[in-house]
Design brief:
Layout: H1 12-35, E1 43-47, H2 51-62, E2 66-70, H3 74-82, E3 86-87, H4 90-93, E4 99-102, H5 112-117, E5 122-126, H6 136-141, E6 146-152, E7 155-160, E8 163-170
Parallel strand pairs: 1-2, 1-4, 2-3, 4-5, 5-8
Antiparallel strand pairs: 6-7, 7-8
Helix pairs in contact: 1-2
C-alpha cells in the first residue's frame, strides 16, 4: 500500500527540539535518579552553550542552582551572558563548583588536569553527544594513582591519590 513517508530524524525542527527541550528533562532526572542529589543551592559549571548547554542551564537554574558557563565560541558566550549566566574558564571555578556538566560534543573537554583541581566530591557528567568529552582513558590507563569505582548503574567515582575526587555519570 503506497503512502507518503518523511524522514523526521534528519529534520532541523526535531534536532533543535530534542537538543534544547529534551535535555531539560533528562539532566534533572539523571541527577536525581542516579545520584539522589538536591540541585537547589548547588554551583554548576556547564561546558558549552549550544542547544544542549542552553537546555541544561535553563533546567538547573530553574531548580535553584547557580550556573556558570565555560564557552570558547564568542557568539555562544555572548548568548550565555545575555541569558544571565557568568562565562568563566574551567580553571577559575573548578575548585568550588559542585557539579560539572559537559555539553560540547568535542573530545577531552575535561582532562586529568581539570579533574585534579575539582573540589572533593564534585559530580562530573556528560550530556553532550560525544562519549569522549571526559578523558577517562588518560585517568585510568596512564596514571596508577587514579581508579574508577562503580557506585551504581552508569555512575563511577574517581579516586585520585587516595581521595574521592569526583562522581561521574553518563546519560
Amino acid at each position: 500500500m503506497p503512502m507518503p513517508a518523511i524522514n523526521i530524524h534528519d529534520s532541523v525542527v526535531k534536532t533543535k527540539f530534542d537538543q534544547l527541550y529534551y535535555c531539560r528533562e533528562s539532566i534533572v532526572d539523571s541527577l536525581k535518579r542516579t545520584l539522589d542529589v538536591m540541585i537547589g543551592g548547588k554551583t554548576v559549571l556547564i561546558l558549552g552553550y549550544g542547544e544542549v548547554g542552553k537546555g541544561c542551564c535553563a533546567a538547573l537554574k530553574g531548580m535553584g542552582a547557580v550556573c556558570f558557563v565555560a564557552e570558547v565560541d564568542p557568539i555562544c558566550a555572548l548568548q550565555a551572558c545575555m541569558d544571565g549566566f557568568k562565562v568563566v574558564k574551567i580553571e577559575d571555578v573548578g575548585h568550588f563548583v559542585d557539579i560539572v556538566i559537559t555539553c560540547t560534543g568535542g573530545k577531552h573537554s575535561i582532562t586529568r588536569k581539570h579533574l585534579e583541581k575539582l573540589k572533593n566530591g564534585c559530580i562530573v557528567g556528560n550530556m553532550g553527544q560525544s562519549s569522549q568529552e571526559i578523558d577517562l582513558v588518560i585517568c585510568t590507563l596512564q596514571f596508577l594513582d587514579c581508579m574508577l569505582v562503580n557506585v551504581c548503574f552508569r555512575t563511577r567515582s574517581k579516586i585520585l591519590s587516595g581521595r574521592i575526587s569526583a562522581s561521574m555519570w553518563t546519560t
